[in-house]
Specification:
With about 475 residues, this protein is α+β, with helices and mostly antiparallel strands. Helices cover about 20% and strands about 40% of the residues.
Length: about 475
């Protein structure tokens, strides 16, 4: 991707204006995307993105410049542009490079697969979803595969390459009756090659799940509002921890004093039954990385242990500001973004509580089977999240489906009020946006119960 002598010259040029650290990031990304509506291909696109970025640090300050032109002349000019933002007396030289090469293995590379096989996956899913109910009036299906090749080198001697294959499907089913419509979605993805569809991703099952959710919500009552116990299912249910708590543990927030968990390492912040991990090393997962976007190897980070805060997610700049070691958590969407601390595969750890008993013990409550979108303020932890598929609990049973439910609260409050954690953990896939763009992340948890949570809704009493 670049000759060592050129990388050396670029990094040194970035130091020549007074920075104490310089970094060069190069990217070459290929992707295929196919969109289908009701069994007909709507569009298909192949994209290739190449470019580079140069970052300089001086103490706790940083500057970043990037270019789509990766010629030696352009890289040198980009280095000068970044360095000009932090002028000082030049004092530093670059260290000798230590070469590292990583690769998330693809047993069946995307380049060996024709578009007819990609299209067939979407058609199979469309047929399966349509078979669920006559009320399914539209099925949108999307296929994506990406191979991102990166090189990170810096003035401290890092020279590391990585290749990252990922693939994902998305099924969006629309159910209609008497002019009213409801939507269900399912979006499985993995960090591997096309072999994902012969091993771990069940295309038809995912499409049927999307369709069943849409049909169920079409016949659901409006959810009543109140403060009641809430049982949140595993998988994408982990989005609440990711958004309401995970972002507040990133150095992006903590280092600047913009997190409700600032200064709380070693303190009790959650119930005893709560442990949480961010693990970038899980084989083949959507959020998995071999190294982060600063060239630091990925690792498993224990965030919360039996309710006690054990770690933050720390990138290089955050490490300088906070005085804590880097955790392999620096990520960026691509060369147009400077890196920041981000999550990878983040989840609540399995517990020992019976999943069905969580519901049987409740006189009233809400079972959130599928979570939708929402918003959160990392500084306060205040959040609101939509429940895309929910059920009202009455007398220890799932009484009826309800729609329009919103979960409202604070991250710190929810952590303290989790009183049951089930034994099966599974994960859901998403794209997480922050200062360094949009990156693939997994969210996960077992089924959990929150003893009391504010539920928003516009329905009346459930009979």
């Amino acid at each position: 991707m670049i000759e060592v002598r050129i990388a050396n010259a670029v990094l040194q040029e970035a130091l020549n204006h007074g920075a104490d650290f310089s970094e060069l990031y190069l990217e070459d990304t290929e992707s295929n995307r196919i969109a289908m509506v009701d069994g007909r291909v709507e569009n298909a696109a192949y994209t290739r993105l190449r470019g580079a970025g140069v970052r300089v640090l001086l103490g706790n300050r940083s500057a970043y410049a990037y270019t789509a032109d990766i010629s030696p002349e352009s890289l040198m000019e980009t280095a000068r542009a970044a360095a000009a933002a932090l002028p000082a007396t030049p004092e530093h030289r670059i260290a000798s490079f230590s070469m590292q090469s990583y690769c998330l293995p693809a047993a069946l590379p995307f380049a060996s697969v024709g578009n007819e096989r990609r299209v067939e996956l979407l058609r199979e899913g469309t047929k399966a979803a349509r078979a669920v109910s006559m009320e399914i009036t539209q099925l949108r299906a999307t296929y994506l595969d990406v191979v991102q090749r990166v090189l990170v080198c810096n003035s401290e001697g890092v020279f590391s390459r990585d290749e990252r294959p990922r693939t994902r499907l998305r099924f969006e089913a629309v159910a209609m009756k008497d002019g009213e419509a409801q939507t269900g979605t399912e979006s499985p993805g993995l960090g591997c090659g096309f072999e994902a569809y012969g091993t771990r991703i069940d295309v038809c099952a995912a499409a049927r799940d999307a369709a069943n959710s849409a049909v169920t919500m079409l016949h659901a009552a409006e959810c009543p509002a109140g403060r009641i116990p809430v049982v949140i299912d595993g998988g994408f249910g982990g989005v609440i921890f990711h958004e309401a708590c995970g972002h507040s543990l990133e150095a992006t927030s903590v280092a600047r004093g913009n997190s409700e968990f600032c200064g709380k390492l070693g303190e009790k912040i959650a119930a005893d039954c709560v442990s949480a991990v961010d693990d970038g090393t899980l084989a083949g997962e959507w959020g998995t990385i071999s190294m982060d976007d600063e060239g630091t190897p990925a690792q498993r980070n224990l965030l919360i242990e039996n309710g006690v805060l054990r770690s933050y997610l720390v990138d290089r700049l955050g490490s300088r500001i906070m005085g804590l070691p880097m955790t392999g958590s620096s990520r960026r969407q691509g060369y147009a973004f400077a890196p920041t601390s981000r999550m990878t595969n983040t989840f609540l750890c399995p517990g020992t509580d019976d999943e069905e008993e969580m519901i049987r013990q409740l006189d009233v409550g809400l079972y959130a089977k599928r979570m939708g979108g929402g918003s959160v303020n990392p500084a306060t932890g205040e959040f609101n999240f939509a429940v895309s598929e929910g059920y009202f609990i009455k007398n220890g049973r799932l009484h009826c489906p309800v729609r329009g439910a919103m979960l409202i609260g604070r991250g710190a409050e929810v952590l303290q009020k989790i009183d049951r954690v089930g034994p099966r953990m599974w994960m859901g896939q998403g794209m997480c946006g922050s200062l360094s763009g949009s990156v693939p992340t997994n969210v996960g948890q077992p089924r959990i119960r929150v003893s009391e949570l504010t539920v928003g809704g516009k329905g009346g009493a459930i009979e």
